[in-house]
């Protein structure tokens, strides 16, 4: 039996969450075209015949924080690299990296962990020479044991990458039961699905200024689950945008979120969402702790 923790690492919006979902063949992690969608270190568990892989989806790899929330996200990513992981999957894009990006990613070499370089979004770049040139630039600052060219979105090269991961797992008994998909509770995924809907419906700063908390969650036999959620924003003007004219925007958000939650849970729910202003919550250490942003 082989088992281990595998951290997915890369700069914001490189496709880590999409890759996790592709490897699991299940949408566990929320995705959006916007950078910095992932705010938590999320464990996704893949069980095979003689292996268990504990994937860790991580927030985007940043060098410096713009606020206390980003500071928490940086610490979560560093924790996954330095403390948790047996193997790192370093995800990069197929474009020529800047010196700043190379310096940023090159810091992963100091972790002293075995790593695989995965050049993602290769469906967007057909030129193999260009892709190889990109990989060569990253290989100069990293010591990868292997390089893979993949498309997490199109599921190209995923099997070969998975085989390489399994080959590098340490011998170990499984860490979790073979029916586990994650170590998170349903409440967590409900908040994430609401956030994903926010990212899909609103633009500009609104999604990044929003946080979701579950106020009440009741499971009722033979009846829909009752869920009450609070959507926090930082300014009164943002609350107005979220609500929309005559409350039409928040109604649409509730309906779309409810459908996403029902599809995920496989059962009916009745969702209510309230919008509240919590000023500058991203810069408030106490607010971050209350909203579950801790390392």
Output the radius of gyration.
20 Å
Helical residues, percent: 25-40%
CATH homologous superfamily name of the largest domain? P-loop containing nucleotide triphosphate hydrolases
Secondary-structure element string = EHEEHEHEHEHHHEEHHEH
CATH uppermost class of the largest domain: Alpha Beta
N- to C-terminal distance: 30 Å
Which strand order does the major sheet show? 2-3-1-4-5-6
Alpha plus pi helix count:
10
Largest sheet: 6 strands, mixed
* CATH architecture heading of the largest domain: 3-Layer(aba) Sandwich
Explain how this protein is built.
With 295 residues, this protein is of the alpha/beta class. The protein folds into two domains: 2-167, P-loop containing nucleotide triphosphate hydrolases (Rossmann fold, 3-Layer(aba) Sandwich); 186-290, K homology (KH) domain (GMP Synthetase, Chain A, domain 3, 2-Layer Sandwich). The protein is built from ten helices and nine strands. The strands form two sheets. Strands 2-3-1-4-5-6 form a six-stranded mixed β-sheet, with helices on both faces. α6 (186-201) packs across α9 (248-265). The longest helix has 18 residues, at 248-265. The chain is globular and about 55 Å long.
Short description:
Helix content is 37%, strand content 21%. The protein is of the alpha/beta class and 295 residues long.
């Amino acid at each position: 039996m082989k088992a281990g923790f595998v951290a997915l690492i890369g700069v914001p919006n490189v496709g880590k969450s999409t890759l996790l979902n592709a490897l699991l063949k299940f949408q566990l992690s929320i995705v959006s075209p916007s950078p910095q969608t992932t705010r938590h270190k999320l464990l996704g568990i893949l069980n095979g015949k003689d292996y268990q892989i504990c994937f860790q989806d991580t927030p985007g790899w940043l060098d410096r924080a713009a606020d206390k929330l980003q500071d928490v996200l940086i610490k979560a990513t560093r924790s996954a690299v330095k403390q948790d992981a047996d193997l790192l999957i370093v995800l990069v894009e197929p474009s020529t990296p800047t010196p700043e990006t190379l310096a940023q990613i090159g810091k992963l070499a100091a972790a002293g962990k075995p790593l695989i370089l995965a050049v993602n979004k290769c469906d967007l770049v057909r030129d193999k020479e260009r892709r190889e040139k990109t990989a060569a630039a990253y290989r100069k600052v990293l010591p990868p044991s292997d390089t893979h060219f993949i498309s997490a979105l199109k599921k190209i090269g995923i099997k070969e990458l998975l085989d390489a991961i399994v080959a590098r797992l340490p011998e170990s008994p499984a860490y979790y039961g073979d029916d586990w998909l994650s170590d998170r509770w349903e409440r967590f995924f409900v908040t994430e699905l609401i956030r994903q809907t926010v990212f899909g419906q609103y633009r500009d700063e609104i999604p990044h200024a929003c946080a979701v908390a579950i106020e009440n969650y009741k499971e009722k036999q033979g009846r829909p689950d009752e869920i009450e959620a609070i959507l926090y924003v930082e300014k009164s003007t943002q609350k107005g945008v979220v609500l929309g004219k005559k409350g039409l925007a928040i109604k649409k958000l509730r309906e779309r979120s409810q459908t996403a939650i029902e599809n995920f849970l496989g059962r009916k729910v009745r969702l209510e969402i309230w919008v509240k202003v919590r000023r500058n919550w991203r810069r408030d250490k106490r607010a971050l702790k209350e909203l579950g942003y801790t390392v």
